[in-house]
Structure formats: C-alpha cells, structure tokens
Amino acid sequence: MPRYLRETAELNLYRNKNTIKILVGLIAILIVVVSVYYNNFIVNILKEREHERVDMFARAIEFMAEQGDNANLTFINEQIVRGNTTIPVILADQSGEPTGAYLNLDIPDNLPEAELLQLLRDEIAQMRTANEPIQVVYRNTANQVEYVEWVFYHNSDLLRQLSYYPFIQLSTILLFGALAYLAFSFSRTAEQNRIWVGLAKETAHQLGTPLSSLMAWLEYLRADERTRQHEALPEMAKDLEKLHMITERFSNIGSVPILEHNSVPEMVQNSVTYLQKRISTKVKITISSVGNDLRAQLNPHLFSWVIENLIKNAVDAMSGIGTIDIRIAPASNNTVHIDITDNGKGISKANIKKVFEPGFTTKKRGWGLGLTLAKRIIEHYHGGRIYVKHSEPSAGTTFRIVLRA
C-alpha cells in the first residue's frame, strides 16, 4: 500500500475512534448480558432442583407420619430427611410458628428455647421472601387432614455463591481490562511523546543551517552601502528573529520549559503587533485588559506561538475579513483568562470536541496539528486550560485560555 494511503487510513481510524469505542462498548455489553443470562439460566435450573429436593423432604415427612412404625422409615429418615446437608430448612406449624425442628442452620447449641424460637422466626421471615414454603399435610387412617405444617427453606450456600459468580467474574475482568487499558494508554502516550519530540528536534536541526545562512546574508546586506538603508531589511530581520524563535521552540520541545512571571497583556500585544503586518489588512484586532498588571507563569516563546496560532485560525475562519477581540481579565482561583473571539463561520456542535484532536482540520490544506500543539503547550507545559468557550455557526467562536497567575 502506498505511504499516503496508509497514512490516510490511519488518520481516518483515529478520527473514527469514538465510533470504534462505541462498537467495543456494545460488544462488551453483549458479552456481559450473555454471561449473566447463561449464569441465571444455570442458577434457575439448580434452584428448581433444590425446590424438588425440599418438596421430596416434605413428602418424606408426610410418609413417615402416615406409616408409623415401619422398617423402611429408617432408610427414608437417613437418606432423604437427614440426607439433606446443604439446604437450610425450618419446620413450622399451620400458623407459621416454628416447631423447633430445623436443619443446616448455623445456630449455637444449648440456646434457650425462647431465643431459639425468636431466631427461627427471623429466619422464617427471610426464607418467606426468598422461596414459597412447601406444605406438609398430616392425615389420619381415614385419610382425613388432621393438621398442616410448612417447610420454609433457603437456597443452599453453593447456589447463592453461584448467583454472585458472574458479577465477581465480570468485576475482575473489568478491573483487569481497566488496568491493561491504562497501561497501554500510558505506553502509547509515551511513545507519541517520543515521536513528537523527535520530529520537533529534527525540524529544528533542519531549519538551523538555512537560518544561519539567511542571517549571514542579512548581515552582508546591512554592511553593503548600497543596501543598508533598504526599507525591507528591518522586516527581514524581524522575520529571521521569528524563525530563530520558532527553531528554539522546536528544539526545546520535550524538555521542561522555563516559566517566568510575565505580563500577559504585553505578551499578547507583542504577538498581535508582529502578526498585524502579516495578515489581511481587512482584519481588525482589538485588545482589552481589565487591569494593566495581569501577570501569569508562562514561557514567552511557547505562549506567543499559541496566541499567533489562534489568531491565524480566526483569520482563516473569517476568510480574511472581520474583527478579532482579545479580552484579558483576572479570575477566581488565582488565574488569568484570555478570551479570543472572532466573527467567522463558527464551529458546529459535532466538531467542538474534535478541534483539539490531531489531524482534525476544516481547511483544504493543513495538517490539523495547530490546536493540538496549542492544547499541549497550555495544559501540559503551563498547567492551564484551553477550550472552546462558545461557538455558533455563521456567528463566530470564542476560545478561552486559563493560566495560573
């Protein structure tokens, strides 16, 4: 596959990551639903079997009462009645009061009768909500009903543990998956950071040679009597100084930037002054500041790049005609807010969350990395925030930068 097609495919994959996340989430939900459904299916089968065992237990009691003295009663008592070693049961009279007979309950020995009966009543209340009791009918020799008792029961510990198993299993899987996702995310982020740093430093290295040559030619023109007074030289010097500053920015990416307590209005004004002569004359830029001594911890080179990038984006959004208002004001939590507002074409609601993603652009040309780098500079290097405060299609956009004072 040609390189440009592969890069396009990778970029499309990145842009569609939300769709992929939704698809993965739906598959995960499907797996959870199927797992829980199958487990409940097995639990219901075992629950039905336990109900049948308790019913057989009740029928065995009836049979023993009807038979009286019979040699087969020992087998029934041992194999059916006493053979139940897992299902907790309590025998109660017709009114639901415990008779004192029970099996497989963790009750201390030698408990006073009053306390025992109260404990059995509490257990019966819980058993009644868990399972329907099974009736035991006692008949006389004429097959007439003499009295009725009830068998209350809990599900066995094994069945109850099995009912919790899918949730324990899924919780373990989710915890492991979350830890694995975080580990891979950190690893991927670290790898991306290394790529960013490598590209930036290589770019700075490649720009260094021609920049040095251009600076030498500028000094040559300044030394020549025929050209030293040329009006273009000061602007050429500013552009070369700007290129030198850009080279420094790229070469310093990856290292901890030096933050200084600088005047925010002054930094913004310097960036606007430089750009004003290099953008359309039909674009008007105004700066308003609530207080002249608004300072923040920032790196002048990196911060000016962010301001210039936002202004250039605003100029493109207005097609070179319109106004850009920059408002600087103090805020709570010892921060400074910088709002950059244009009256351009705005951003749709669907794209507001995407504007800072690598590769996202509405221009016919461009890499879609400007706002990504701006976000990285403000949030990673300056510990601040940058976001779309407000945007309305065909009405304009406001970006807000939050810096620590």
Automatic annotation (TrEMBL):
Zinc-finger is among the record's keywords: no
Transmembrane segments: 20-38, 164-184
Name of this chain's protein: histidine kinase
SUPFAM superfamilies cross-referenced by the UniProt entry: ATPase domain of HSP90 chaperone/DNA topoisomerase II/histidine kinase (SSF55874)
Catalytic activity as recorded in UniProt: ATP + protein L-histidine = ADP + protein N-phospho-L-histidine
A Pfam cross-reference name: HATPase_c
The entry's keywords: ATP-binding, Kinase, Membrane, Nucleotide-binding, Phosphoprotein, Transferase, Transmembrane, Transmembrane helix, Two-component regulatory system
